[in-house]
Every structure is written in C-alpha cells, then in structure tokens.
Amino acid sequence: MSQESQGATATLTVVSVEKVQxxxxxxxxxxxxxxxxxxxxxxxxxxxxxxxxxxxxxLPCFRHPxxxxxxxxxxxxxxxxxxxxxxxTIFAAA
Length: 94
Hints:
Elements: E1 2-5, E2 8-22, E3 25-35, E4 38-49, E5 55-58, E6 61-63, E7 69-71, H1 77-93
C-alpha cells in the first residue's frame, strides 16, 4: 500500500502477523514502512480484542521508568490508520 503526504511516498508492508492468546492481546505484527526509499522495520504492533466486540491495532509501546506506557513510535494519524487497516485485514485472513 502506498500513500503520498507532502511530496513523500510511503509504502507499508505487513511483514508478519502472529496469533497469541494473552488476555485482550490476540496478535502481534511486524510492519515495514518505506518513506522515499528508506525502510524502517517496526515490531510490536498489538492486535487487541475490544471489550464489546471488534478488534483494534495499537502502536508498539514501552514502559517509562515512572510506570506509564508510551508509544515507541509517533506516526501521523493517516499512516497509523493505514497500518491498522492493513494489519487487521491480514490478521482476519490468517
């Protein structure tokens, strides 16, 4: 999937999706985002079961020393949504 933003071209590829069973966490994904030919591999996208049905895809995060969970990467809303849509589509087909 390609997306152009402010003259840059971004291509994303879901490298892998792994099903897991750990509470609400039901899957993990690895995604490669290539922006203007420069690839970045991002691991740890979480596929979560929502309390009232449905699924969501959350950004990778890390635990700050003060105990808060923070996103490991900050992406534009458009790119975050595109990644989530692609990850959830591939997860549903797996």
